[in-house]
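FAQ

Q: What does a record look like?
A: Structure on top, sequence underneath. For example:
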């Protein structure tokens, strides 16, 4: 009973945080700015691009979706995987040599797909320019490791480094 009373008290409590001007009380409630709800199954991953106002979500519905962060509008649905998407990752390169934005998606179908927008960033059409095949079990996680290098880890107990230009 003591624990129940403490939980009820905590649920009604306010969180106090410090700011540059002192403290502010933030209610312990969730009021999201946007709710993105176009997937037909569980969302497994999300990644926000560092420069552009877009984010990507991956789902068990075998798709990745590109969203405009400010408006919450769906900009593109990427279809190509035959099983659920496990991870999504923009290249986030801010290098002046990087000529185009790229997105990598991994899946339970044992593939990694590399996507680019058809005409730069102002488009709703994304093309799969490469499919990377080599893991024997589900790919758990992917990370960009440079302009044209991608790392992947899998339940097959391997980590692979991929050249995204050559595959």
């Amino acid at each position: 009973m003591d624990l129940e009373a403490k939980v009820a008290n905590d649920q009604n409590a306010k969180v106090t945080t410090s700011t540059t001007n002192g403290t502010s009380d933030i209610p312990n409630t969730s009021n999201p700015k946007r709710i993105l709800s176009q997937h037909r199954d569980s969302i497994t991953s999300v990644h926000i691009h560092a420069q552009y106002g877009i984010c990507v979500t991956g789902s068990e519905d075998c798709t990745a979706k590109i969203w405009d962060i400010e408006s919450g509008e769906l900009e593109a649905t990427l279809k190509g995987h035959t099983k659920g998407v496990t991870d999504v990752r923009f290249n986030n390169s801010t290098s002046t040599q990087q000529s185009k934005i790229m997105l990598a998606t991994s899946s339970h179908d044992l593939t990694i797909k590399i996507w680019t927008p058809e005409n730069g960033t102002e488009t709703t059409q994304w093309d799969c320019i490469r499919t990377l095949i080599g893991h024997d079990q589900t790919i758990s996680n992917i990370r960009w490791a440079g302009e044209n290098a991608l790392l992947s880890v899998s339940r097959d107990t391997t980590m692979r480094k991929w050249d995204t230009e050559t595959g």
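Q: Is there anything notable about this one?
A: Residues 145 and 151 are 6 Å apart (CA to CA).
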